[in-house]
Design a protein that fits this description.
By secondary structure, the chain is mainly alpha-helical. The protein is 77% helix and 0% strand. Helix 2 packs antiparallel against helix 11.
Length: 399
């Protein structure tokens, strides 16, 4: 029964994780979208100010200030540092994730980063708890992770096909006439060539310009591709640090249990430190964007209808509630699934997260007008992710 509840908690965690940032998406329904008066960085800043505040209130209400103080007072400093240091890195993982998506697109960037996150986050507790895993459990988790990664790749393929179709459509049916001007560097190159009695044929000049441009574009693409891959690696590795905080902070969880905290709430002291440290990276990045884009002023611009601003604040508050809910339910799932619960709960949460995000892409009609192949890849991605959840869930309950 406990294992079944753990699986349900992990799936609920993934549903929340795939939905909590919905108010930042312009395609979201107007009743949900918070960007009517604010830019993305305004929404992100407010939400990440509220997240540690709300989380602290919840932890204090469930555990109580006195018990929480006792847990932190009796915990060894090295165990607390083992939570705080990875959590600081986790906060910067969102920056790497954002840069990966910016450079490679939502579909490809998400699939690569999520693949790294699920592999690292599952491998860590599996290696540390290898003695507690049976051969059946190890095989089931490996198969489930493989299906999940395949689902991420299929989702990325679907997004690429959709985006390529949109780009071709934009080229074939441009909305704005663009005047093509020959680059100054090309004109200078032409002047630098030796003079001859016969003028250079225009077609030949065009071929030379095209060859130079193609060579330059190839170098730029190669450089940007590897930079993008580094951002994906940074986003995936740093985002996986949450799992490091939870696994390496196991001594604090055990201490909370000895203090009388229930199994379902025993991870809350860990999450309190995680969110407090995580906020630094998100606030630093969004604060930088607020200054760079001069969007600080949007906080102070009065609107004719204050309800619009209040709605944006309310959506940020919902984000600040949903994100800790995702993390806390993951902690509950990992505890309920037993000594090796983190091995099973992590891939369950990540697969359910991407499944939710892919489902939202269908609900928000992001694939309307996409080629049939893109829709089929998206459907295949959903099937693979469901299969991943089922395999890991069955292994966790009966393996």
């Amino acid at each position: 029964m406990a294992a079944a509840l753990g699986v349900a908690a992990a799936v609920c965690s993934g549903l929340a994780n795939g939905s909590w940032n919905l108010p930042t998406k312009p395609d979201a329904p107007r009743s949900v979208y918070a960007g009517t008066v604010w830019a993305w960085e305004n929404i992100w800043f407010v939400a990440n100010v509220l997240i540690p505040v709300f989380n602290t209130v919840v932890v204090l209400a469930v555990i109580g200030p006195s018990v929480l103080s006792e847990v932190f007072a009796d915990a060894e400093p090295r165990h607390l540092w083992a939570i705080c240091v990875p959590s600081l890195a986790w906060g910067w993982g969102g920056v790497g994730f954002g840069q990966a998506i910016k450079r490679l697109g939502v579909a490809l960037g998400t699939s690569i980063v999520m693949g790294i996150i699920v592999v690292i986050g599952t491998a860590l507790p599996a290696v540390l708890g290898a003695d507690d895993l049976t051969a059946t459990q190890a095989s089931g988790v490996a198969l489930g992770v493989a299906l999940g990664v395949a689902g991420f790749v299929a989702g990325g393929r679907a997004g690429l096909l959709r985006d390529q179709a949109l780009e071709r459509r934009a080229v074939d049916h441009p909305q704005v006439d663009v005047e093509l001007v020959e680059p100054a560097t090309t004109r200078d190159d032409a002047k630098a060539t030796p003079e001859s009695d016969e003028p250079e044929p225009e077609s030949r000049l065009g071929d030379v310009r095209d060859a130079k441009r193609e060579s330059r574009d190839r170098r730029v693409f190669s450089d940007s591709f590897w930079v993008s891959m580094l951002w994906c690696l940074a986003g995936g590795v740093l985002s996986s640090m949450l799992q490091f905080s939870f696994v390496l902070g196991g001594a604090v969880v055990d201490l909370a249990k000895r203090k009388g905290v229930s199994d379902a709430a025993a991870a809350m002291p860990v999450w309190l430190l995680c969110f407090a440290c995580n906020a630094f990276g998100h606030l630093a990045y969004s604060g930088y964007l607020l200054r760079a884009n001069d969007t600080w002023r949007l906080f102070f611009v009065s609107t004719n209808d204050r309800r619009v601003t209040l709605h944006a604040v309310f959506m940020c508050a919902l984000m600040a509630l949903a994100m800790p809910f995702h993390i806390h339910t993951y902690g509950v799932a990992a505890v309920l699934l037993g000594p090796t619960g983190a091995v099973f709960a992590w891939p369950l949460v990540m697969s359910a997260t991407v499944f939710t995000a892919q489902t939202w892409s269908v609900v928000l009609k992001e694939f309307d007008g996409a080629p049939r192949a893109a829709k089929r890849w998206n459907e295949g991605s959903l099937c693979l992710l469901v299969s991943s959840v089922v395999v890991v869930a069955v292994t966790g309950m009966f393996g």
